[in-house]
Design brief:
The complex is a heterodimer of chains A (231) and B (733). Chain A is of the alpha/beta class and 231 residues long. Chain A has one domain (2-228): Rossmann fold (3-Layer(aba) Sandwich). Chain A has five helices and eleven strands, in the order E-H-E-E-H-E-H-E-E-E-E-H-E-E-E-H. In chain A, the strands form two sheets. Chain A has a nine-stranded mixed beta sheet, sandwiched between helices. Chain A is globular and about 45 Å long. The relative contact order of chain A is 0.17. With 733 residues, chain B is α+β, with helices and mostly antiparallel strands. Among the domains of chain B are: 193-369, PurM-like C-terminal domain (Phosphoribosyl-aminoimidazole Synthetase, Chain A, domain 2, Alpha-Beta Complex), CATH 3.90.650; 378-410 and 562-733, PurM-like C-terminal domain (Phosphoribosyl-aminoimidazole Synthetase, Chain A, domain 2), CATH 3.90.650.10. In chain B, 36% of the residues lie in helices and 23% in strands. Chain B contains 26 helices and 28 strands. In chain B, strands 8-10-7-11-9-12-13 form a seven-stranded mixed beta sheet. In chain B, strands 23-25-22-26-24-27-28 form a seven-stranded mixed beta sheet. In chain B, strand 2 (76-81) and strand 3 form a beta hairpin. Classes of the chains: A alpha/beta (231), B alpha+beta (733). Chains A and B meet through helix 1 and strand 6 of A and helix 8 and helix 10 of B.
C-alpha cells in the first residue's frame, strides 16, 4: 500500500507519520509537497498535524487554498482514502471535506496528554481492526473543540460517522472526560462514504512499544487491512 | 536615538562608561561615528561581551575526548557515537519576560532553537527551568501564565517537544522571574558547521524576516541593567516572535547544509546584524563589506537602527559566490526572502556602506572581543547571620502525616502537570520518559541508544552558600541522569545573578563558578556551552544567586532505562547513601517553619562519585527495577513520588538516631532510592563494597495502597496524590 504524506509549510507531524508508516507498518510512503497536484500514485493521503502557515489565521484556513487541496478534493470524491490528524482535521473541516469546525479548547490552553476514546463504529476503513472498546491515544492541540449544528450532529450520529468520542477508561461519555469542550465529546468523524477521516488524537504517537502505548496502531492497521482486502 | 547629539555625549545614553568610550577611540584612532558607537554599545554590553564573567568562566573544565565543540560557538557539541553528535545550550530570557511574559518567553525559545540549528543540528528537545516569585502575588500568576503560554505557543508550533524543566517559587523572584531555556539538537557529525567566514569573495546572505525597529537595545537596555520604575517603558525593547517563520528557517537551513552549500551560518540574536557580522568575520580572521541599504526593511529606518535591531527569525549565511544562487533558491522554495548584502574581503575590517557611503570601518575583532573586567568581590554580610541559625532548636510538629501532606501540596513540590501538559512533549516520536521524572529520556532513532536530559539549580541553597549550592546543582543533575540509566556526558549552564558591579554579588558569582568547576572536575563533566545573566535585580534587591545546570547523558542501551515508579509487590526498597541531619535550606524548613536559614546540605565529591558509580553499575547489570534521586523534600517525598508513579504503596521499618522529621525531610546529597528483587541484594552489596563510603540500607518493601513509615507516616496514596496533583491548578484557579 502506498501512502502520501502532505507537507504544508508549518506541518510538524509529517515526519512522524512518515516514520510510522515506513518503519512500523512497513508500507511504502512518500512526502507530497503542498504545491504538488498529482495524487494518483497514492492509495491513502495523510494530512499530518502541525501548524500549517503558523495557524496565524484560523487553523487550516490558509492551507485549504494550497494547490494540493484541490487534488485532495478530487481524490476523496473518487473514493480515495484521506486521513487528517489534528491540524489535518482542521484543514479538512476548513476545506468542507468534513462537516463542522474546530474551535479553541474551552480551557483556553494547549493540551498535550493521553485521552481515552470510545470507538463508536468498527465497520469502517479506519477502525475495522480495533479489537477493544476504548483506545488510549494522545491529543496535542489548542483548537480541538468540535462544533456543528444540531442537524449535522444528528446526521453524523444517525449515519454512524462519529468514530471516536472522548470517554473515561471504561467507555462512559462524561463531561469530565471531555478535554476541549467538543460537542457530544466528538474526537473523530468520517465523511459520508467513510473514506475521509478527521480526528484530533494522534495515532502515530502511540504505535510503538517503546513509546508506552500501541493503540494508535489499530487505526493504521485498519486502513492497511481495508486496502489489502480490496476495499 | 537623537542623531543630533554628538557621540561624546551619546555614549552614556547607550550604556557605555567613559573609560569604554576612551577605549573605543583608542582602538579606532579617532572618534567613532554614531553608527559605530551604537554597534560598540551593544557588542560591549555585559550581555554580549561577558566582560564581567569572562575571567571567572575560564575556571570551568571544557575538555573531554567526546567534546567536538566547547564554549565560544552558538552551542556546544558532543560525540555520541554512530556518527552522531548532540548540540546543546542554555540561555536566559529573564528581562524580556519580566516586561512582556508571552513574547519574552516565546522569543527566548526562538533564540535558543536558532543557536542549535545554526550548528547544523535538528532541534529535538527543549527544557525550561523557570523561577517565579511568591504565588500569592497576582503578578506572579500573570507572569507564570504568560511565560508558559509563550513557551507553548512558540515551541509547539515548531514541532520541538518540551520534555523537561523545573519550576521554583520564591519571593526573591517577585519582580525578576528567571526564564531559562535549553535546546538540544542532533546531527550527523559531518554536518557540523560554525559561524565563521573563511575566504575573501564569499557571499554574505541575509535570509527571512525583514528588519524592523523591534528589539532595539534589547541586549544593552534590557539585559544589562536592573529593573526599576521605568521598566514598564522598556516594553518596546521586547521583540515579537514568529514561530512559523522559524520553522521554515530550520528546514531551509538544514537543507542548505545537507546540500553542502554553506561555509558559515549564524543567527541574528542579541545585537542583531552587528553581532552576526563581527563574530562571523572575526572568527574567520577575515573582513566583510556589507551594504546596510540592501537589508530588507519593514519600515523606514536609519543605518544605526538597522545595525542594532533585534528583529527575530533572521539568519546570516556565508557561501562561495557560485553557490549563492542555490542558497537563494532553497530559501525561495520555503517562502523565505534571501538577499545578498555583502561579501567577505581581505583584512580584518568590518565595513558597512549606506547608499555608497562608508558609515562603519572598524576591526571586526574589536567589536567581537569586548573589554574584560576584574570586578571587586566581597563576602556578603548576610551569610554570617543565616549560617549561625541553630536548627537544633526547631520544634518538629507531632503530626507528620499533616507535614508530608502540606509539603507535597506546596508550590515547590506539587505536580507540574499544569505546566507541561501545555507543552507538546511527544512530537518527533522520541520521548520515552515524560516530564515529571528525574530526567526525560529520548530515544535516538536507528541506534538503540538514548539521551537523558535534566535541568537543576536550587537558588535557596546558593543563597545560603553559593559554592555548595552550585556543586549541588551539578551533582543532582548528574544523579537525575544516572537514575534514568544514562551516563552523564556534558553540561551547559545558565548563571543568573544580580548586579556584578556590586562586590557582594560578584563574590556570589565567583564562589558559584568555583563550586561548579570543582564538581564538574570531580565527575569528569565538561561544560560545553552556557550563558551568564547579570543584573537580575529590581529596586536594588537581587535575586538569590541561581546557577542552573542543563545535563545531557547517554544511555548506551535504551532498553536498560529505569523509571522512578515502584514496579511490583514485595520488591525491596533500598537507600544508597547516607541521611544526615541536614535541614538547612530545606523545603521542610521553608514550608513548615517559614525559614530560609542554616547551611545547605554538604557535598562530599568523593562520596558523590562513589554512590553514582554504584547506582550506575547496578542499573547496567540490569537488576534495578526503579531508581529515584533524593532531592528537595527529602526521603519521604522521594518515596511517595515513587509510590504515586505506579500506584504501588510501600512499608518501611527505619532504625535511626535522627529525629523522624530529620530522617524524612533532610535534603542530604549523594542518595538514591532503588528497588530490586530480594535475591539481587547481595549483588548490590557487592557492587557497593567496591566503592568507599556507600552504605546500602534496606528500608522496606513495596506493596499495598499506603505509604507507611514506622509509626510516623501512614498515608493513603490516592487521596494524597490528588492533593499533590491538583495543588498548582487550585492555587492558580
Amino acid at each position: 500500500m502506498r501512502f502520501g504524506v502532505v507537507v504544508f509549510p508549518g506541518s510538524n507531524c509529517d515526519a512522524d507519520c512518515y516514520y510510522v508508516i515506513k518503519e512500523v507498518l512497513a508500507q511504502e510512503v512518500y512526502y507530497v509537497w503542498h504545491q504538488e497536484t498529482d495524487l494518483s500514485p497514492y492509495d491513502c493521503v495523510v494530512l499530518p498535524g502541525g501548524f500549517s502557515y503558523g495557524d496565524y489565521l484560523r487553523c487550516g484556513a490558509i492551507a485549504r487554498f494550497s494547490p494540493v487541496m484541490e487534488s485532495v478534493r478530487g481524490f476523496a470524491a473518487a473514493g480515495g482514502l484521506v486521513i487528517g490528524i489534528c491540524n489535518g482535521f482542521q484543514i479538512l473541516a476548513e476545506a468542507g471535506l468534513l462537516p463542522g469546525a474546530l474551535l479553541r479548547n474551552t480551557t483556553l490552553r494547549f493540551i498535550c496528554r493521553y485521552v481515552d476514546l470510545r470507538v463508536e463504529n468498527t465497520g469502517t476503513p479506519w477502525t475495522n481492526s480495533v479489537d477493544r472498546k476504548v483506545l488510549r491515544i494522545p491529543i496535542a492541540h489548542n483548537e480541538g473543540n468540535f462544533v456543528a449544528d444540531e442537524e449535522t450532529l444528528d446526521r453524523l450520529n444517525r449515519e454512524g460517522r462519529v468514530l471516536l468520542r472522548y470517554s473515561d477508561p471504561e467507555g462512559n461519555i462524561t463531561a469530565e472526560a471531555n478535554p476541549n469542550g467538543a460537542a457530544q465529546n466528538i474526537a473523530g468523524i468520517a465523511s459520508e462514504n467513510f473514506n475521509v477521516l478527521g480526528l484530533m488524537p494522534h495515532p502515530e504517537r502511540c504505535s510503538e512499544d517503546i513509546l508506552g502505548h500501541t493503540d494508535g496502531l489499530t487505526i493504521w492497521r485498519s486502513v492497511v487491512n481495508h486496502f489489502e482486502r480490496g476495499n | 536615538m537623537e542623531a543630533a547629539k554628538p557621540v561624546s555625549e551619546l555614549y552614556a545614553d547607550l550604556g557605555l562608561t567613559s573609560s569604554e568610550f576612551e577605549d573605543i577611540k583608542r582602538v579606532l584612532g579617532r572618534e567613532p561615528s554614531a553608527v559605530e558607537l551604537g554597534m560598540f554599545s551593544l557588542m560591549w554590553s555585559e550581555h554580549c561581551s561577558y566582560k564581567s564573567s569572562k575571567e571567572a568562566l575560564k575556571m570551568l573544565p571544557t575538555q573531554g575526548p567526546w567534546v567536538l565543540q566547547g564554549p565560544g560557538e552558538n552551542a556546544g557539541i558532543i560525540d555520541i557515537g554512530d556518527g552522531l553528535a548532540v548540540a546543546f545550550k542554555m540561555e536566559s530570557h529573564n528581562h524580556p519576560s519580566a516586561v512582556e511574559p508571552y513574547q519574552g518567553a516565546a522569543t527566548g525559545i526562538g533564540g535558543i532553537v536558532r543557536d542549535i540549528f545554526t550548528m547544523g543540528a535538528r532541534p529535538i528537545a527543549c527544557l525550561d527551568p523557570l523561577r517565579f516569585g511568591s504565588l500569592d502575588k497576582q503578578r506572579t500568576r500573570f507572569l507564570l501564565g504568560g511565560v508558559v503560554a509563550g513557551i507553548a505557543g512558540y515551541g509547539n508550533c515548531l514541532g520541538i517537544p518540551t520534555v523537561a524543566g523545573d519550576l521554583y517559587f520564591d519571593a526573591c523572584y517577585d519582580e525578576n522571574p528567571l526564564i531559562n531555556v535549553m535546546c538540544v539538537g542532533i546531527m550527523p557529525v559531518r554536518r557540523i558547521i560554525k559561524g565563521a567566514a573563511a575566504t575573501p569573495g564569499e557571499a554574505v546572505i541575509l535570509f527571512r524576516n525583514r528588519t524592523g525597529r523591534d528589539g532595539i537595545g534589547g541586549a544593552s537596555v534590557l539585559a544589562s541593567q536592573e529593573f526599576d520604575e521605568t521598566s514598564e517603558a522598556k516594553r518596546p525593547s521586547v521583540q515579537v516572535g514568529d514561530p512559523f517563520t522559524e520553522k521554515l528557517l530550520i528546514e531551509a537551513s538544514l537543507e542548505m547544509l545537507d546540500a553542502g552549500l554553506l561555509v558559515g551560518l549564524s543567527d541574528l540574536g542579541a545585537a542583531g546584524i552587528s553581532c552576526a557580522l563581527s563574530e562571523t568575520a572575526a572568527k574567520g580572521g577575515v573582513g566583510m563589506a556589507v551594504h546596510a541599504d540592501r537589508v530588507p526593511l519593514r519600515e523606514d529606518m536609519e543605518p544605526f537602527e538597522i545595525m542594532i535591531s533585534e528583529s527575530q527569525e533572521r539568519m546570516l549565511a556565508v557561501c562561495e559566490p557560485a553557490k549563492a544562487a542555490a542558497v537563494i533558491e532553497i530559501c525561495e522554495r520555503w517562502g523565505l526572502k534571501a538577499t545578498q548584502i555583502g561579501e567577505v574581503i581581505p583584512g580584518d575590517k568590518l565595513e558597512i556602506y549606506w547608499k555608497g557611503e562608508k558609515v562603519v570601518d572598524v576591526p571586526a575583532s574589536s567589536l567581537a572581543d569586548g573589554p574584560v573586567y576584574s570586578r571587586e568581590s566581597a563576602r556578603p554580610q548576610y551569610l554570617d547571620r543565616v549560617a549561625a541559625a541553630d536548627l537544633s532548636t526547631v520544634e518538629h510538629p507531632s503530626d507528620l502525616n499533616d507535614v508530608l501532606m502540606r509539603l507535597v501540596a506546596s508550590p515547590n513540590l506539587c505536580s507540574r502537570h499544569w505546566v507541561w501538559e501545555q507543552y507538546d512533549h511527544m512530537v518527533q516520536l522520541n520521548t520515552v520518559v515524560y516530564p515529571g521524572s528525574d530526567a526525560a529520556v529520548l530515544r535516538v532513532k536507528g541506534t538503540g541508544k538514548g539521551l537523558a536530559l535534566s535541568v537543576d539549580g536550587n537558588g535557596r541553597y546558593c543563597y545560603l552558600d553559593p559554592y555548595t549550592g552550585a556543586q549541588i546543582a551539578v551533582v543532582e543533575a548528574a544523579r537525575n541522569v544516572i537514575a534514568s540509566g544514562a551516563v552523564p556526558a556534558a553540561i551547559t549552564n545558565c548563571l543568573n545573578f544580580g548586579n556584578p558591579e556590586r562586590p557582594d554579588i560578584f563574590w556570589q558569582f565567583i564562589r558559584a563558578v568555583e563550586g561548579m568547576s570543582d564538581a564538574c572536575r570531580a565527575l569528569d563533566l565538561p561544560v560545553v556551552s552556557g550563558n551568564v545573566s547579570f543584573y537580575n535585580e529590581s529596586f536594588g534587591e537581587a535575586i538569590h544567586p541561581t546557577p542552573v545546570i542543563g545535563m545531557v547523558g547517554v544511555l548506551p542501551d535504551i532498553e536498560k532505562r529505569v523509571g522512578i515508579g515502584f514496579q511490583s509487590q514485595d520488591d525491596l526498597i533500598v537507600l544508597l547513601g547516607e541521611t544526615l541531619p541536614e535541614l538547612g535550606g530545606s523545603e521542610y524548613l521553608k514550608v513548615i517553619h517559614g525559614l530560609t536559614e542554616g547551611r545547605p546540605p554538604g557535598v562530599d565529591l568523593a562520596k558523590e562519585r562513589a554512590v553514582q558509580a554504584v547506582c550506575r553499575e547496578a542499573i547496567e547489570q540490569g537488576f534495578i527495577l526503579s531508581a529515584h534521586d533524593c532531592s528537595e523534600g527529602g526521603l519521604a517525598v522521594t518515596l511517595i513520588d515513587s509510590c504515586w508513579a505506579t500506584g504501588l504503596g510501600a512499608t518501611l521499618r527505619v532504625e535511626t538516631d535522627l529525629a523522624p522529621a530529620e530522617w524524612m525531610f533532610s535534603e542530604s546529597q549523594s542518595r538514591f532510592v532503588v528497588t530490586l528483587k530480594k535475591m539481587d541484594l547481595p549483588r548490590l552489596q557487592e557492587i557497593a563494597r567496591a566503592q568507599v563510603g556507600v552504605p546500602v540500607e534496606v528500608l522496606g518493601w513495596v506493596g499495598g495502597k499506603h505509604l507507611v513509615i514506622n509509626d510516623w507516616i501512614a498515608m493513603h496514596l490516592e487521596k494524597s496524590r490528588e492533593a499533590w496533583r491538583t495543588a498548582l491548578e487550585n492555587i492558580l484557579a
